[in-house]
Amino acid sequence: KKIRVVVTASDVIHAWGVPSFGVKQDAFPGFVRxxxxxxxxxxxFRGQCYELCGKDHAFMPIAVRVVKDAVFSDWTKAVKDRNxxxxxxxxxxxxxxxxxxxxxxxx
Length: 107
Fold this sequence. Notes:
The protein is of the alpha+beta class. It has two helices and six strands; from the N terminus they run E-E-E-E-E-E-H-H. It has helices at 69-80, 84-106; strands spanning 2-7, 14-18, 23-27, 33-38, 43-49, 61-66. The strands form two sheets. It has a four-stranded antiparallel sheet. The chain has a two-stranded antiparallel sheet with strand order 1-4. The radius of gyration is 16 Å and the shape is globular.
């Protein structure tokens, strides 16, 4: 599935990137930029900010959780309905599922 990512910054230039998706997009204060990637499997994909954007640069990890369409639809509905408890429940369930996938991959 093709996923569109919209990025911006509020302070300095950042560079949003996730190597597994082959994507990197610079984020500039006051501008909205976009990029896209194909999500072909469920899981957690990690990246980082690739700019020297300040003293806390080393503490800017990026994690993208790719979920099934049904889970994303449930989450979107809960956000629109402002159902915070349901949003937290969905996020907690996804985190547990992804932790299980990571354990299986390490075996």
